[in-house]
Each structure stands twice: as structure tokens, then as C-alpha cells.
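TICKET: design request
STATUS: open
ATTACHED STRUCTURE:
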């Protein structure tokens, strides 16, 4: 049985870090759409004050999108050998999903710039700058905290996320095997 880190490394080395970074942008947008749809569904009430939509399907969509983002980010984490240890996350207020989303998008943008600059440096010089790698690892930590906050906000357990992530990783590896 292959370790999860090895599976992630196999995926990112197959497609390339910049290609996966580009794909991450799509996943970030899909997470944003899932959050917005869920928040709008929370506001849709009938004349008796009852929710019109069952929020379970919206939260399942968020769980899937969170897992997609985590798979992509964990590939970057493994690729650059980042040791990201997260403390417990507490939400100060559950009302600020849009503020969290904006902050998350900004952090992803900064991470993306760091990865591109790091890869450009390596192309030019033939090696990685350790300070660039440290910057990526720090930015990854911020993004992982944001995703953990979203999981808390929508009552998604770490265990559930890990199950979905493992499924998605294994499915991706099957696709790679089928390409060969």
C-alpha cells in the first residue's frame, strides 16, 4: 500500500507543479461557488419562515470542493516538502463566510505567485531558493487554516474530508495509470 504522500507526489510529478497550480485555481472557484450557493440557500425561506432548500446537499458539495482544494494543496505541500502543522482552529463568528472566502482567495493568489516565482528561479538557476520554499510553506499554512475554518463553519469533520480526499486521490492515480 502506497503512503498518501507518495500518491500525492506521483500525481504532481506526473502533471507538473505549474499545471496543478493552474488546476487549483479552478478548484478555488468551484469552492467559492459552492459556498455562495449554500449561503444563498440559507436565506431562501417560505412564507412560514421555513428553509426552502435542504442544506445537506449544499454542504455535501462544499465538502467535495474542500476535499478537491485540500488534495491540490497537499500536492504542493509534499512537492516542496513543507512541514505544516496546524493548531486547532476556532471560529470567532459563523456569520462571515464571504469575508473568509475573500481572504482565502487572496491567500491562494499569494501562494500562486510564490510558487510561480520559485519555479522561475529554479528554471533560471537550476536550484530552489530555500527562502522561496519557506515562503510557500508559510502561505500554505494560511490556506490550510482557511480551509479548516470552512470545514468548521459547515460542520464537516476532518475524518469525512480525509475519506473524500483519499477517494479523489486514488481516482486520480487510476486516471494516470490508464493514460500510460
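STATUS: resolved
RESOLUTION: sequence designed for all positions
ATTACHED SEQUENCE:
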Amino acid at each position: 500500500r502506497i503512503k498518501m504522500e507518495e500518491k500525492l507526489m506521483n500525481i504532481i510529478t506526473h502533471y507538473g507543479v505549474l499545471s496543478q497550480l493552474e488546476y487549483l485555481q479552478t478548484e478555488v472557484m468551484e469552492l467559492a461557488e459552492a459556498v455562495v450557493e449554500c449561503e444563498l440557500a440559507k436565506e431562501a425561506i417560505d412564507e412560514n419562515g421555513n428553509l426552502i432548500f435542504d442544506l445537506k446537499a449544499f454542504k455535501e458539495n462544499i465538502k467535495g470542493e474542500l476535499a478537491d482544494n485540500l488534495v491540490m494543496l497537499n500536492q504542493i505541500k509534499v512537492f516542496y516538502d513543507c512541514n505544516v502543522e496546524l493548531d486547532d482552529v476556532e471560529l470567532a463568528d459563523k456569520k462571515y463566510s464571504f469575508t473568509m472566502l475573500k481572504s482565502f482567495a487572496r491567500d491562494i493568489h499569494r501562494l500562486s505567485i510564490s510558487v510561480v516565482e520559485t519555479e522561475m528561479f529554479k528554471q533560471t538557476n537550476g536550484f530552489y531558493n530555500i527562502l522561496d520554499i519557506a515562503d510557500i510553506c508559510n502561505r500554505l499554512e494560511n490556506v490550510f487554516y482557511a480551509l479548516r475554518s470552512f470545514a468548521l463553519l459547515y460542520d464537516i469533520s476532518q475524518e469525512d474530508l480525509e475519506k473524500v480526499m483519499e477517494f479523489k486521490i486514488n481516482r486520480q492515480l487510476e486516471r494516470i495509470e490508464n493514460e500510460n
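CLOSING REMARK: Residues 97-125 form the longest helix (29 residues). The chain is about 75% helix and 0% strand.
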